[in-house]
Amino acid sequence: MKPIYPVLFIFTATILVGFTIYLGHTVPGFVAAGIICAVLVVITVYIKYYPGIDEKVSKTGLIQQYLLSNFTVDQSTLNYLQKLLKEDYNLTVTVEQLKSAIEKEQTRRELELEKEELHDFRNKFFIEKRPETLEEYIKKFVTVFGRGSVRNVYYLKKVLDEGNIPYSDKKEFTDKIITLKNLIEEEIQQRGGPPRKEVHLTVTVCPQCGNEYPDGLLFCPFCEEETTKVSEPVHEMCCPHCNNPMVKSILKRNGKFVKGYQCRNLKCLYEITDEESHNT
């Protein structure tokens, strides 16, 4: 039950009871008030103790199992999960309810991951004296992390924001990250470090649907095709719309399947091809 419904109920009921008493019907007014209080108690108990559909779906463990190997969400995936929930757990859910359950699990995992990684970042970054200026922060970052990953730079941004250290006159999240990466690159060049090289990463993918899986998975659980290892250049992406991390995906453009990225945020699901991402 959405939180807005009890609020509307209370608001409407209060007006009606007040109007009834105002017209002189005191006894019916107080009786109605008692009934309303009883209904509110029932609603409160229902909301607190009766599990919603999101919780029921979560308890099956199906969403958690799915997210272990895949972050890409499309209509065929949602249909497949709906079918499994109906056949194996006797749960009938709508696409919106399923999206909500997946989004909550993604959010929970992302918050847990960010909490752990930020704690680890602080332990490494503030092991000695805390930096005081932007220059000291950048030097310390390069000393500890080198160029670092996009998430390392993201955590650097967080600690700079917490310390009220100005580092960019830009307002957009992506622009601020780019500013920090450029400052880090300048520091590396000043130290005589090598120019940035594109690093290659070996990933396990399904040749049929293009989904990526953890190393060791021999067959795609959706296509039942044998997976293969592919070497690809590392190209980390943040969604230009909502700033969430994007994951590699297979997109359909002009009737053809092309490699690209899809936003992990289910409220966004922004897509961009590999070629467009390089141009951007």
Tell me what the structure shows.
The protein is mainly α. The chain has 4 domains: 4-49; 55-113; 126-190, no CATH class; 200-279, no CATH class. It is built from 10 helices and 6 strands; from the N terminus they run H-H-H-H-H-H-H-H-H-E-E-E-E-E-E-H. The strands form 2 sheets. The chain has a 3-stranded antiparallel β-sheet, with no helix packed on it. It is extended. The two termini are 42 Å apart. The model has no long low-confidence stretch (mean pLDDT 75).
Distance between the termini: 42 Å
What does the radius of gyration come to? Answer: 26 Å
Helix and strand sequence:
HHHHHHHHHEEEEEEH
Proportion of beta-strand residues: 5-15%
Mean pLDDT: 75
Number of helices: 10
Structural class assignment: mainly alpha
Number of strands: 6
- What is the count of structural domains? 4
**Taking strands numbered 1, 2, ... along the chain, how are they ordered across the largest sheet?**
2-1-3
- Proportion in helices: 55-70%
Q: Which stretches of 5+ consecutive residues score pLDDT under 50?
A: none
Largest sheet: 3 strands, antiparallel
Backbone shape: extended
